From TrEMBL:
It comes from Streptomyces ovatisporus. This is PhoX family protein. PROSITE patterns: TAT. InterPro entries: PhoX (IPR008557), TAT_signal (IPR006311). Residues 1-22, 341-366, 423-446 are annotated as: Disordered.
Length: 605
């Protein structure tokens, strides 16, 4: 039977129960520590966190707000008993009401706006752990520590660099952008860099409603820009956030950015060859001949799955020239969008989530539709530059399949199968919207699903693939849920899968955002092969109002970013909804947490 014996190696822990505790709950026998909090100084000269005296200058040297994606990279450096790694973190967005006492959303001050700019972006921080424990501590003032903010210069790279669509009065060449915004999840490349997806960039740009040029307004609206004032009102302090003053500034966001975290003087780059949309994440896999394939999701309802295949091969040498070469891999290649076709009778896809009668699986075939290769467009009526800058419009024309909010997409390093978290889509089947299909089988989908696909011939550059739903999430008692056929009375309930990663045994780990089952969000592990395939086990849950982000699973520790704790309607500094992590007299602070076995042994064995 499927349940005989032990859970898969790496997942042998007592699952945590669904709960609404205002803390990070972990399995019995596990401990935890805070690695770093919002506002802790990481650069030389940065002051200690003092929320009553916060300044933009201080924030620019401190860990940013709302940590999301995390990457841990190797560092050949030892300090006594300590082993060091390089941690890269995204800071997706700011919650001003939880950052500033007495914040007036109608009258934000310039200093508050500038603190917000400095609290966005990325952090690079060296972290250190003892050999005998999974606990990690930040190493402040290390020479590799770095902050990238909403005002750091970026180079625009790839086929749309210099495009007329990217030019502004501050940058008439269309090649230098100030800052990165809304960095959600990301990826770690085999050549030692990190990728960061610029996601919900619409929230920063004011006055789309007032744009007179209808064509331009429609292009902005296709990227969800709308209305007049923005919530943070940054347009009052910098004209570039007002589209009636700087019409093309929004085109300079919504990219995948690449950072070389080992070189603190490097200029980060926006990789236009990977297209412009609401990038959730970007995780590469190499083809057998060394080309880079990057899988990507566009996180909005009814948006698409994409991949990029580089034309050049990665060089594995360690010379400066090899490294410089690898930093050009993501500038030249082909951008594709996915079409998925089910193979079960249409009548069987009734929107309930119950399995089709023919093969008792939601599955089918798919193809990757090319949109552009280098300077060549494959989309009628659009230049290659337009395909890259208005990728959503290109994918619409190509007839791609509208998915239930594609979040993280990652290939398993063990099997090569690719997993895509489709977080939810409550509009599926609503009036005037696309109805259920085999890959997105539920109407009013509140809990999401996880798609698994295999590229033809296990070649990530293939044009065809087979797919099936691995998990249809929700309450296991609900007949419209599915756990790869694993007995449903033996799994942890899971809702709204978002970020994903793999452990060294090949298990898939999923973090959730927006649990609709009455529990706080959490982190879950699940075997993808063998008898225990589909056995979802809850590893931790996060505090009130928080989302679980950035999971990294190493043999000795699990690292998570606890994002937006206390983010509950009506909450403020004066009326906090959470007391995490430092208790009732302190500010609620997004923080990175490390979880480990108290007895010093490996996770889940
Ligand atoms: Fe920033 Fe799609 O989550
Ligand atoms: Ca089928
Ligand atoms: Ca996310
Ligand atoms: Ca991931």
């Amino acid at each position: 039977s499927r349940t005989k014996g032990k859970p898969a190696k790496g997942l042998r822990f007592t699952p945590v129960e669904p709960n609404t505790k205002d803390e990070v709950t972990v399995p019995e026998g596990y401990g935890q520590n805070i690695v770093i909090r919002w506002g802790e100084p990481i650069l030389r000269g940065a002051p200690d966190f003092d929320p009553e005296k916060q300044s933009a200058k201080a924030q620019a040297g401190q860990f940013g707000y709302n940590n999301d994606f995390l990457s841990l990279l190797p560092l050949k450096e030892q300090e006594g008993d300590g082993e060091r790694q390089l941690m890269v973190a995204n800071h997706e967005y700011t919650d001003e009401v939880l950052m500033f006492a007495g914040y007036d959303p109608d009258e934000p001050t310039r200093e508050q706006a500038e603190i917000g700019w400095a609290a966005h972006g990325l952090s690079v921080v060296v972290v250190e752990g003892g050999k005998s424990s999974g606990a990690l501590e930040a190493v402040p003032r290390h020479r590799l520590n770095r902050r990238i903010t909403a005002t750091t210069p970026f180079e625009v790279a790839g086929p749309a660099a210099g495009s007329k669509w990217l030019r502004t009065s501050a940058d008439p060449e269309g090649r230098t952008v100030l800052g990165t915004l809304n960095n959600c999840a990301g990826g770690t490349t085999p050549w030692g860099t990190t990728l960061h997806g610029e996601e919900n960039i619409d929230q920063y740009f004011a006055n789309t409603e007032k744009v007179k040029d209808e064509e331009h307004r429609k292009r902005l609206e296709r990227y969800a820009l709308k209305g007049t004032d923005t919530e943070r009102k940054w347009e009052r302090f910098d004209d570039r956030f007002d589209v009636t003053k700087e019409p093309y500034e929004p085109h300079r966001f919504g990219w995948v950015v690449e950072l070389d975290p080992y070189d603190p003087d490097s200029t980060p780059r926006k990789r236009t060859a990977l297209g412009r949309f609401k990038h959730e994440a970007a995780q590469p896999r190499l083809t057998r001949d060394g080309r880079a394939v990057v899988y990507m999701g566009d996180d909005e309802r009814f948006e698409y799955l994409y991949k990029f295949v580089s034309s050049k091969r990665m060089r594995s040498g360690r010379s400066r020239a090899d490294h410089e070469h690898n930093l050009t891999l993501l500038d030249d290649g082909t951008l594709y969008v996915a079409e998925l076709n089910g193979d079960s009778p249409r009548d069987d896809i009734d929107g309930s989530g119950e399995l089709p009668s023919d093969d008792h699986e939601f599955d089918g075939t798919g193809r990757w539709i090319p949109l552009a290769t280098g300077d060549r467009s494959h989309v009628e009526g659009m230049t290659a530059e337009e395909v890259y800058v208005f990728t959503r419009i290109a994918a619409d024309k190509a007839g791609a399949t509208k998915m239930d909010r594609p979040e993280d997409v990652e290939p398993s390093p063990r099997t090569g199968r690719v997993y895509a978290a489709l977080t939810n889509n409550t509009d599926r089947g609503a009036a005037g919207k696309a109805g259920p299909d085999e890959a997105n089988p539920r109407k009013g989908n509140k809990h999401g699903q996880v798609l698994e696909f295999s590229e033809h011939g296990d070649d990530p550059a293939a044009r065809r693939f087979k797919w099936r739903l691995f998990l249809v999430c929700g309450d296991p008692d609900d007949p419209g849920t599915y756990f790869a056929g694993f007995p449903k009375d033996q799994v942890s309930p899971i809702s709204c899968p978002d970020n994903i990663t793999f452990d060294s045994y090949g298990n898939l780990w999923l973090s959730t955002d927006g649990n609709e089952l009455g529990s706080h969000d959490g982190l879950f592990g699940v075997a993808t092969v063998g008898r225990r395939r589909g056995e979802v086990r809850a590893f931790l849950t996060v505090p009130t109002g928080a989302e679980t982000c950035g999971p990294v699973v190493q043999s000795r520790r699990v690292l998570v970013a606890v994002q937006h704790p206390g983010e509950v309607d009506g909450a403020s500094v004066e009326k906090p909804a959470s007391q995490w992590p430092d208790g009732p007299d302190a500010y609620v602070r997004p923080s990175v947490v490390s979880v480990w076995r108290k007895d010093g042994s490996d996770i889940g064995v």
